[in-house]
C-alpha cells in the first residue's frame, strides 16, 4: 500500500475480509527459505495482519513495518504495540542496515508498471548475500471484477472525470520478465501463481471486497452522489457476471503472483 490514491486507506474496510487476505501472507511466508533472519521489514504492512504472521514465524527477529497510510499504521500499532511502524514510500524507502528479509503483501501492484521491477531490484541490492525479498501481488487485471470496473468507469456521468485519471492499475508483468530482470542479482528467483476461489455471501460482498483495494481509484475521485451511482452500476454488472452458487453464495476468483528471490 505504499503508493496509495490521494485519500487515505481505510483499515476497517480492508479488514472486512482479513482472513481471506491473510491466507496469501501465510502461503508466501511458507516459501521463504530463511530459518532465522536477523532483521525483517514488512513493506506496505497495512493494518498489521501480515506483520503478525511474521512475528509468529520469527519471534526472535527484529521486525518493523512500513506503510504510506496513517490509518493503516495506526491500526497496526494498536494491534502490535511492540513493533516499530514507520511511514514511508516504497519507491524511496531504505531498509535499516542488517535487514535480511524484505516481505511485501499486496503492495507492488500500486506502483506504476515501469517502476515495479526497478524498485524490486533497488531493494534487492540493499540485502546481504543470501538475503531474501518475498512479494505477493494480485494479478487480476483481466478478471471480471476488474474488467467491470473499467466498463463501469467508461459508461456514466463520471466517465469524463475518470477517463483523465487512469484509475486502473497497470497489468502485472509476466513471470519471465520478473525472472530475466532480477536473476542477474539473485542466486534464485522462485515465481508462481495461485488462483484463490473465495466463496462470499453475494455480489454485494464482492463490491465490499474491492472497495477496500482495487475499486478505490475509481470511486475516491467522485463526489458522494456520483460515487453511489457508480457503485450501484458496478454492482448490477457484478451480480450478472457472478452467478449464484448452489447455496446462494458467489465465488470470487482471485489470482495472485508470488515471488521469492534470494540475493546473490
UniProtKB/TrEMBL annotation:
Positions of the Methyltransferase domain: 40-131
The record's Gene Ontology biological-process terms are: methylation
Q: Which InterPro entries match?
A: Methyltransf_25 (IPR041698), SAM-dependent_MTases_sf (IPR029063), Trans_acon_MeTrfase_C (IPR023149)
Is Transferase among this UniProt entry's keywords?
yes
Q: Carries keyword Methyltransferase?
A: yes
| Highest rank taxon of the organism | Eukaryota
Which keywords describe this protein according to UniProt? Methyltransferase, Transferase
Q: Which GO terms describe its molecular function?
A: trans-aconitate 2-methyltransferase activity
Q: Which Pfam family would be a valid example here?
A: Methyltransf_25
Q: SUPFAM superfamilies, from UniProt?
A: S-adenosyl-L-methionine-dependent methyltransferases
| PANTHER family given in the database record | TRANS-ACONITATE 2-METHYLTRANSFERASE, TRANS-ACONITATE 2-METHYLTRANSFERASE-RELATED
Xref: NCBIfam families: PRK01683.1 (NF002463)
Which protein are we looking at? Trans-aconitate 2-methyltransferase
Natural source organism: Mytilinidion resinicola
Amino acid at each position: 500500500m505504499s503508493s496509495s490514491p490521494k485519500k487515505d486507506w481505510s483499515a476497517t474496510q480492508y479488514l472486512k475480509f482479513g482472513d481471506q487476505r491473510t491466507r496469501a501472507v501465510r502461503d508466501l511466508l511458507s516459501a521463504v527459505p530463511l530459518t532465522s533472519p536477523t532483521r525483517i521489514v514488512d513493506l506496505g504492512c497495512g493494518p498489521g495482519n501480515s506483520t503478525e504472521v511474521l512475528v509468529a514465524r520469527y519471534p526472535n527477529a527484529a521486525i518493523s513495518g512500513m506503510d504510506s497510510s496513517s490509518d493503516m499504521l495506526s491500526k497496526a500499532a494498536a494491534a502490535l504495540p511492540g513493533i516499530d511502524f514507520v511511514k514511508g514510500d516504497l519507491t524511496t524507502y531504505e531498509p535499516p542496515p542488517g535487514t535480511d528479509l524484505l516481505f511485501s503483501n499486496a503492495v507492488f501492484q500500486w506502483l506504476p508498471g515501469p517502476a515495479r521491477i526497478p524498485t524490486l531490484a533497488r531493494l534487492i541490492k540493499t540485502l546481504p548475500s543470501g538475503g531474501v525479498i518475498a512479494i505477493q501481488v494480485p494479478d487480476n487485471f483481466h478478471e471480471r471484477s476488474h474488467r467491470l470496473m473499467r466498463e463501469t468507469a467508461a459508461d456514466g456521468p463520471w466517465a469524463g472525470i475518470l477517463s483523465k485519471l487512469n484509475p486502473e492499475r497497470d497489468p502485472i508483468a509476466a513471470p519471465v520478465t520478473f525472472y530475466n530482470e532480477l536473476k542477474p542479482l539473485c542466486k534464485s528467483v522462485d515465481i508462481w501463481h495461485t488462483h484463490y476461489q473465495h466463496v462470499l455471501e453475494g455480489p454485494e460482498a464482492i463490491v465490499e471486497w474491492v472497495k477496500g483495494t482495487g475499486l478505490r481509484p475509481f470511486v475516491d475521485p467522485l463526489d458522494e452522489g456520483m460515487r453511489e451511482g457508480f457503485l450501484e452500476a458496478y454492482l448490477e454488472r457484478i451480480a450478472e457476471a457472478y452467478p449464484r452458487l448452489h447455496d446462494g453464495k458467489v465465488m470470487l476468483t482471485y489470482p495472485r503472483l508470488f515471488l521469492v528471490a534470494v540475493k546473490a
